[in-house]
Amino acid sequence: MTSDSSSATRVARLVRGKDHPGSRDIIEISLLDLVPPRNRFVINLDRRPDRRRRYERQFAAANIEPIRVSAVDARSLPPEHPRGASPFSRRRCSMAEMACSQSHRELWQLGALRDEPLMIFEDDVYFCDDVGEHLRRPLELPRDFGIFYLGAAWREDIETYAAPGIYELHGCRTLHAYVISPTACRQLLLLAGAIPALASDHYTLMAHRTRLVRAHIALPLWAVQTGDASDIALRMPIAASFGTLFESVLPSARWPFQEMPT
Fold it and tell me: Has residue 179 been placed in a domain?
């Protein structure tokens, strides 16, 4: 992860920009009313028709029809393709992470140009039995929400109770099922421009931890990833990894964990 002053300046501009979320207004709407059919997508590798058949059965059972997007395949990337250093493990990102990141960024580019949020799934998503009902049930969401996760990898990122069945996050390490606002798409693209060649969930985690993009999640989880090997691995604590870039930008960018109500 680069620590040069130009990157820090660009990130500071993002965080302090006019699109930074601040409103606490609540809207009550279902996710399928919030996200029109033309904005619902599933990312699928051409060489994984097995996953396509499985997720098609799941979506049919939930009575939703996302648009299939052909995933960027790591095998198609040239050996010299840029791979940034992970800000969490200090290792270089893998080619699979770069391909996955490019797939998500292409959808963020589309979302930045649209007026309504996008709903994005990866092809290894597994739904809970009543996900269709959840997607159609009105939720209390902050009007300025950035990303709403249908599932996540680790619950230690859960911070505060927000509404019935909804909690605010201070980070999230997976992108297998989420709804993202146009403003969040623009902010993540600017962040990716300032710090290139990272995995997509590195950008979202940085954006959440710095309050650039607000994150919420449904609990109990509506969606999980399959038992297949995942590219997502447990990474180093945020305090050990963001210091060089963010200390001068957001010196108080750490927040206490608040217990969830029982």
Answer: yes
What is the bridge-based pairing of β-strands 215-218 and 166-169? Answer: antiparallel
Q: What is the pLDDT of residues 228-249, one digit of tens each?
A: 433 332 222 332 233 333 233 2
Task: Please tell me the total count of domains within the chain.
Answer: 1
Angstrom distance (rounded) from CA 12 to CA 25: 25
Summarize pLDDT for 73-114 with one digit per residue, the tens: 999 999 999 998 877 667 888 899 999 999 999 999 999 999
What gap in Å lies between CA 117 and CA 34, rounded to an integer? Answer: 7
Q: For residues 119 and 142, give the distance between their C-alpha atoms in angstroms, rounded to a whole number.
A: 17
Q: Which domain holds residue 189?
A: 5-156+171-209+242-246
In-domain check, residue 58? yes
Nearest by Cα to 41 from 16, 67, 22: 67
Is the pTM higher than 0.85? The answer reads no
What is 164-213 written as a DSSP string?
Answer: TTEEEES-----SEEEE-HHHHHHHHHHHHHS-S--HHHHHHHHHHTTSS
R_g (Cα) of the chain, nearest Å? 18
DSSP three-state, residue 139: strand
CA distance 177 to 152: 8
